[in-house]
Design a protein that fits this description.
Radius of gyration: 20 Å
Distance between the termini: 29 Å
Helix content: 25-40%
CATH topology of the largest domain: Rossmann fold
CATH class of the largest domain: Alpha Beta
Order of helices and strands: HEHEHEHEHEEHEEEHEHE
Strand order of the largest sheet: 3-2-1-4-5-11-10-6-7-9-8
Structural class: alpha/beta
Largest sheet: 11 strands, mixed
Strand content: 15-25%
CATH architecture of the largest domain: 3-Layer(aba) Sandwich
Number of domains: 2
Shape: globular
């Protein structure tokens, strides 16, 4: 199975924690993998404190081992079910430890193309706070797929793609090329500009995959604190199924990304569709 994943064009790392949102993320990863020729690794990191309740060292070791056996059985059943039903390569890993530290170590070792995470509706206000999502957006240089609230795409085939601010990304990043090849729907571009009103216009951009013209609807929004509400409204109105956001190219570990600003935070928090943060 590992060999099959290595032969795949892309490698997706799905982070699960046995919550509904993480299983929604896994379903999104499966649907995406079938379209772009990707293998999937499922990673579960569990803090020992959630397992161990005793102070006795022998009891602690026994409890951890029992939990390890149970987790291994559950994870194996999960990946076998997906692999058999969807015919895509799937493997799993799990460990006990600090969640962010263990995930970062795993990412460093395996170098996935996209890290897939769920979005919990109950934590919407602090979704991009000091947790795992914020850490990944600030420190991970690769792609990140953030699932919508309790919502997954039935398929990424013929998906309605939306882009935030930079349409040129569709011709620069390979994964968007692969998504475009499997979609006949026009694109929607959302731009934030210093204007006096919301404008709507249609532009025509040449396609790099085929001869001819692609019809793209462009919405321009006035820069301001309330534009995230307008963005979420128009994303829903235009039935965008996947919103793509291009990562800035000046990613440095000791500096916050320009991506992590109020506009992006509020947009991701408010919309209920998967968001794909694209790598450099």
């Amino acid at each position: 199975m590992i060999t099959n994943i290595l032969k795949s064009k892309y490698r997706l790392l799905v982070l699960i924690d046995q919550t509904k949102s993480s299983y929604t993320a896994l379903r999104n990863a499966v649907n995406l993998a079938k379209v772009i020729d990707a293998g999937i690794e499922v990673l579960y990191v569990k803090p020992p404190i959630q397992v161990v309740k005793q102070d006795n060292q022998i009891a602690v070791i026994r409890t951890l081992e029992e939990e390890r056996i149970a987790l291994k059985k559950a994870m194996q059943k999960l990946v076998n079910t997906i692999s058999d039903s969807e015919n895509i390569p799937v493997i799993y890993s799990f460990t006990f430890g600090n969640v962010i530290a263990e995930i970062q170590n795993h990412i460093t070792k395996t170098q996935p193309d996209i890290v897939v995470i769920g979005k919990r509706k109950t934590k919407m206000i602090n979704f991009l706070g000091d947790g795992l999502t914020s850490y990944l957006l600030k420190n991970h240089k690769g792609g990140i797929l953030i699932s919508g609230d309790e919502k997954n795409l039935k398929s990424y085939t013929n998906v309605s793609l939306g882009f935030l601010d930079d349409m040129s990304m569709s011709n620069e990043i390979e994964i968007t090329q692969d998504l475009k090849k499997n979609s006949s729907k026009p694109f929607t571009l959302f731009k934030i500009k210093k204007t006096n009103s919301v404008k709507k216009k249609t532009s025509f951009l040449k396609s790099t995959e085929q001869e001819g013209i692609i019809n793209t609807t462009v919405f321009e929004f006035e820069e301001g604190a309330g534009n995230s509400d307008s963005l979420s409204k128009y994303i829903e109105k235009n039935k965008v199924e996947l919103l793509c956001i291009k990562r800035t190219k000046d990613l440095k570990p000791n500096k916050p990304l320009r991506l992590i600003n109020t506009k992006i935070k509020q947009t991701i928090n408010k919309i209920n569709v998967p968001v794909l943060i694209l790598a450099n």
